[in-house]
Amino acid sequence: QVQLVESGGGLVQAGGSLRLSCAASERASTRYAMGWFRQAPGKERECVAAVSRGSGSTSYADSVKGRFTISRDNAKTTLYLQMSSLKPEDTAVYYCAAVVADSRVVVTTRAQYPYWGQGTQVTVSS
């Protein structure tokens, strides 16, 4: 069972950038597709970006396309979310998640992910 720990959240002004990191307890590349989700107060948790086990495929929510980039490092122990041109509506708790999957599969459905980090708060001020 993989353990996930997010970091990098904080307070930023609108238009600014942040990079979130998610450290995995094992080499996630050997087994897991991964994703970034966010949950704002009173809203459902939504997938903002996801990447396949082999990094060859990615998926983004329409609301973040062109502004967010998901990536995995060469050792595949860390997942990143580079966020640019941030907006107040990006304010949420951001979670990373992992699921065992075939190498080219991208998973964007919350219910399919069994492993979750504790979340990191991102606040964008106007």
Could you characterize what this model shows?
With 126 residues, this protein is an all-beta fold. Helix content is 0%, strand content 48%. The strands form 2 sheets. Strands 2, 4, 5, 6, 9, 10 and 11 form a 7-stranded mixed β-sheet that branches. The chain has a 4-stranded antiparallel β-sheet with strand order 1-3-8-7, with no helix packed on it. β7 and β8 form a beta hairpin. The chain is globular, with a radius of gyration of 13 Å. The relative contact order is 0.32.
Descriptive tags:
single chain, 126 residues, mainly beta, seven-stranded mixed sheet, four-stranded antiparallel sheet
Q: Any low-confidence stretches, pLDDT <50, length ≥5?
A: none
Radius of gyration: 13 Å
**Secondary-structure content class:** mainly beta
Secondary structure tally: strands: 11
Number of helices, where a helix is a run of at least 4 consecutive DSSP H or I residues: 0
Q: What is the straight-line distance between the termini?
A: 40 Å
Q: What would a concise description of this structure say?
A:
This protein is mainly β. It has no helices and eleven strands. A hairpin with a 6-residue loop joins strand 5 (46-51) and strand 6 (58-60).
Which secondary structure elements does this structure contain, and how are they paired or packed?
Blueprint: E1 4-7, E2 10-13, E3 18-24, E4 32-39, E5 46-51, E6 58-60, E7 68-72, E8 78-83, E9 92-100, E10 115-116, E11 120-125
Parallel strand pairs: 2-11
Antiparallel strand pairs: 1-3, 3-8, 4-5, 4-9, 5-6, 7-8, 9-10, 9-11
